[in-house]
Amino acid sequence: MDWMRTLYSRMQYRVRAGAEWSEAFTSLWGILAGDSMSPAFFDAYISDFKPPTTESDIIIGDTPIGNMELADDIVEITSTNPKRPDLTHAQEKLTYTEHDYCHNQAFLELNGSKQSGHIIIEQVNDFRYGGVIFSSDPRPKHLFERNYRTRAAQARSALYSVFATEAFVGTLSVHDGITMYYARVDPYLVHGFEAVIDIDAESLKLLEDVQLEFIRRLLDLNPRCAIAPLFVETGILPIRHRRLILALRYAKYTLSLPDRHYAKKAYLDAIVLYKAGKRCWVRDLETALTKLPDFPVITDITQMESSGGISALVDEVHDSCAQYLHKQLQSSRLPLFNNPHRSLNFANPKSFLRKKKYLHTIFVPAHRRAVSKLLTSDHGLAIEQYRRVRRRDGSAIPVDERWCRYCNSPTESEVHALFLCIGDEAFPDIVTRRQQFYNDISRILPSFSVDRCLRNPSRSIHFLLDTPDLAPAFGKYVFDVLAMFPGFPKASDS
After folding, report:
1. How many whole angstroms separate alpha carbon 471 and alpha carbon 463?
2. Are 163 and 343 in contact (CB under 8 A)?
3. Distance (Å, rounded) from C-alpha 451 to C-alpha 126?
4. CB atoms within 10 A of CB 201
């Protein structure tokens, strides 16, 4: 190990901040904590750590596995009868680890406060390894329930930290918010996808709730808003589909590994267990695919045995996600998202699941939020507010009886408020503001005909949003109009 000592003694660090670099300095404590080489060097140092193989080791394929090392996080495995446990083999491994290897060979000392080898017998219901929490407690509904709760709590804490920065930097832009999401929140939501497949709906909902809360806060939408627009507008993939796609890609990765690699052995062993009708990782993967909302993916074990078959499954999950979101957008609650008006290409999931232009071309946060509320029906117009109101006899109020509060039009809708409402004698401001808006866009883009807003208002809305020069003016107009329709509209006469 002379090369390692030489490396430690001569290693220097520099700190970079943007394009600037600090002076070189030497770490007196070896490799600094957090350096990506630290665990690799430790694994290299203990490369001769070879605990004895025993008949109680776990067999994967034809390979006995009785220990695993993740840097200095070492676990030794012994299978026993839970009713009559025999720890002879466990003691044999502990003796080798502490006395033969650490004391006599590697000159290491076990940390008594952090390791459990010195405890005579301790039975625990939860165990953490590699960051994943396993549970043998019969009370939870799922083997990894505590892991889900822990990761969801960490993700929510990161969410609060992200939005706490607004007290210092002002309102986060959508671009910066999404960047912070992938840097601080998403790692907790996807953590453990290689081991934990989402087959329990209640546990998965813990992660989904955090993701939805983040996007809603970023767009300033309330918890009652429709879900599909959150993903279509920001380009963020629903966490259920994202974790499943990552798991499939990991399965594909294991097939590309050499035959001697433990990950490949474990995956091939899971396929053998699947064919034998046993519970295994591959069966959980199949279950998760069939539980995708509205458009399940049906797989065959032969697809899981080849890289091409797994790639096809990844494409099917993308398609399932696209069809699911497309179905949700067809709701009567979201008239501005109907496909003819929005020009969304759901045949190509990667093309429609992307951040929309207006989220960065409308610079004023209040105006951007107003547009998001308009598109997602998260506003005070009667067409949305009376959706949850019932008449005295319990019946729903028809759309054509959700009257405009100013001009008594049968329906106070988004299009009506923006382009059709004529106000009344006591409130002529909306007509004046509309004419001012028409003058603004005619000055910015003379080729745009304001008559287009009357002939095809829904398509005009999206044209205005997709045109960078017009989007800011339209965002201000939407903000002003929605401010003219505050609170709860007047009740229906019936």
Report:
1. 9
2. no
3. 67
4. 12
> What pLDDT does residue 243 have?
97
Please say whether the beta carbons of 481 and 433 come within 8 A. yes
In angstroms, the CA 68 to CA 479 distance is 59
Rounded Cα distance between 168 and 180, Å, is 15
Give dist(CA 322, CA 350) in Å, integer: 9
> Is residue 37 pLDDT above 80, yes or no?
no
Q: What angle do CA 455, 458, 459 make, to 5 degrees?
A: 80
Provide the angle, in degrees to the nearest 10, between the axes of the packed helices 281-290 and 262-275. Answer: 70
Q: Which two tokens stand for residue 175?
A: 């671009």
Q: Which residues contact 115 (CB under 8 A, 6 or more apart)?
A: none
Q: What is residue 126's DSSP assignment?
A: E
Q: Can you read off the two tokens belonging to residue 63?
A: 């390979």
| Residue type at position 55 | E
CA–CA gap between residue 49 and residue 44 (Å, rounded): 10
**Six-digit token pair at 140?**
């939870």
Run of H or E including 238: none
At residue 13, the pLDDT reads 82
Query: Which neighbouring-strand residues pair with 26?
Result: 12
- Dihedral pair phi/psi, residue 308, rounded to 5°: -65, -40
So what's the pLDDT on residue 268? 95
Task: Give yes or no for a contact between 238 and 321, defined as CB atoms under 8 angstroms apart.
Answer: yes
User: What are the beta bridge partners of residue 17?
Assistant: 20
373-405 pLDDT, tens per residue?
999 999 989 998 888 888 888 898 898 888 898
Q: Using pLDDT thresholds of 50, 70 and 90, give the confidence band for residue 70.
A: confident
Asked if 90 contacts 76 with a C-beta cutoff of 8 angstroms, the reply is yes
State whether the Cα torsion 265-271-276-282 is positive or negative.
positive
| SS3 category, 303 | helix
Q: pLDDT per residue over 406-441, tens digit each?
A: 888 899 999 999 999 988 876 788 999 999 999 999
- Kindly state the tokens that stand for 120: 């005579």
Integer angstrom CA distances of residue 274 from 83, 142, 314: 28, 19, 20
Nearby residues of 308 by Cβ (< 8 Å), 6 or more positions away = none
Which residues is 69 bridged to in the sheet?
Answer: 74
